[in-house]
Design brief:
Blueprint (H helix, E strand, L loop, with lengths): L8 H14 L8 E9 L2 E8 L9 E6 L6 E9 L4 E7 L5 H4 L2 E7 L2 E7 L26 H10 L4 E3 L4 E5 H4 L4 E5 L5 E5 L5 H8 L7 E8 L2 H13 L3 E2 L4 E9 L2 E4 L7 E7 L8 E7 L4 E5 L1 E6 L2 E8 L4 E6 L14 H9 L19 H12 L20 H9 L19 H14 L8 H7 L13 H9 L19 H14 L5
Helix pairs in contact: 7-13, 8-9, 8-10, 8-13, 10-12, 10-13, 11-12
Length: 515
Amino acid sequence: MKKVFMTKTAALIASLMIVSMLVPVLAFAATNFNNVTYNGSTVTGTVYVSDDVYTGDDVVVYVYGSDGTTVLDTVYATYSTYGNYNFSSNVSYATYSTYFPLQLKYFYSGNSVTEWVYNNSYSGGGFFFPSGNVLIDDNGKVDGTLLSDLFAKDKNPTILSKSDVVTIPADALSKGETLTIKLADGTSITLPIAALKLDEQAKSLGVTLANLIIRVELKKLTGDAAKAVTNAVYGIDAKQLATPVDFKIVAVGNGKEKQINNLGTYFKRTLPVSGAVDSKTVTGVVYNPETKKLSFVPATFATVGGNVIATVYRNSTSIYTVIQLDDVSFKDVTKHWAKEYVQTLASKLIVEGTGANKFEPNRNITRAEFAAMIVRSLGLETTGSTSKFSDVGSSKWYAGAVAAAAEAGIVLGDDKGKFNPNANITRKELSAMVVRAMSYAGKEVKLTDAEVSKALAAFTDAGSLGWAKAEVAVAVNAGIVNGQTSTKVVGNANASRAEAATMVTRFLTNVGFIN
C-alpha cells in the first residue's frame, strides 16, 4: 500500500480528472465499494470500476471523518482482478468520538462514490463497539446502555442508521446534549436533547423516564404524498432539488404516543441536494399538507465530499424539501440600489411583488407588513391569533403573523395595549425588531454603554433615537443597518420596502440562516 501526504490530496484528485479526460468513456464507468470492513484500526475493502478503466491505472481512496471534510488517510488501491482494486488503511479507533463513523470516497471524472463504515463490521449495519455489541441495529433500535457509554465519551455524537425510523430509550438519551441521527445518503436530524423536555413527556404519558421511548422518523415521501409536494413546487414555477422528507419526533409510552413539535429552539436537519446550486436562488422550504403550500425555512448550502448538502434550521418538525426559484425580478428594481437584496428575498419566498411585476421599493412599509416579513424570515408558523393587542382583530390578514412575532418577543405594543398595525414603521422600530429576531435566532447581542456610543459615534443624530438607541447600535455594529448618509442614521424616518428587505437579508446572513 502506498500512502501519500494530505497536502497531495488536491493534486491526486486533479490527476484522476486528467486521466478521465484522456479516457472519455471513464465518465460513464460504473464504480462502487465492496466488502468494506473496519476492524480494530484497519479499514479494508475493494473498489470496483468498470472494464473501461484499464488494468494498472491508479485508484485512490480517501478516508474521511463523519463530517465529510476531514481527510484521515489517503491510499492507493492495488489491482486485484479485472476492475477490482483492493485497499487497506489504518485509522485509530480512538478517533471515533470525533470522526466516527468514517466515509470512504473514490473520485472519478468529476464524480464521487461514497461508502460509510462502522468499526468491527459494516455488513451488520449497526454501530459496533469493540466488544461487538450493537448500538443501533438494522431496524433502528438503539441500545440504551451503549448509548449511555457513548455519551460518556462524547456529549454530541453522530450515529448512522440503516432505518429511517429510530427508537431511543429516553433515560439514555437524557445523558447527552445533542444526538445526530444520519442516514447513508446524508439525510440527518440533530436532536437538542434538553429542548425535548423528556421528564415532561414521560409525565404527560403517565410513565417513568425509564419506560419512555423517543421515536425519530426521517421518512422520504413517496406516492401521492410526494406528488402533492411536487405539485406545490410546480405551482410556483420552481424546480425541486431534493426528495421531500417528513421529520418527526414522537414520545411513546403506556400504549400512547405524543408528537413533539415546537421545541422552542432552532435545531438542524440535513437533506442531500441534486446537482450544483446557487445559494441566491435556492432555498429550503417547509410544506404544509393542510394548505398545500410551501414557505421559507432558514437553510444554508455546502458541498460535502463532492455532494451538496442543505442544512435546514427550524424549531419544529414537518415536511421539508429544497427548491430553486429563478428569474424572480421586478421591473422597478432593475436599477435600484436594493436590487440584490429584494431578489434574494423574493427567490426565498419571503417578499412578494405588489402587482404588475412591481415591488415598489420606495413605498413605506407598515408595522404589520414588516412583522409578517420577519416572521416569514424566521420560518415561524402563523396559524394562531393574539388577544394581546386590542387593535389586532383575529380576522385580519396579519393576525397570525403578529401573534407569532409577539410570542417570539419580536414585537411589543404601546402603553395602551395597541400594536398599531397600519402605522408606517420607522427605521429605529425596524432595527429594534431585527435585533429581537437575532436574539430569537440564538444570537443575542448586548453592548455596554461605551460600545453603544462607539457604534453610533459617526451619526450626529444618534441622540434622537431615544428608547431604541441600544438596539440601533447593535444593528449598526452587526452591519445590518447603515445610515442614510455617512453622518445621519435618521432613525425616526419611515422605513421603505427596500430598506426592510435589505435589513432582513443582512439579518439572515448575520445569524447564519442563509449563505
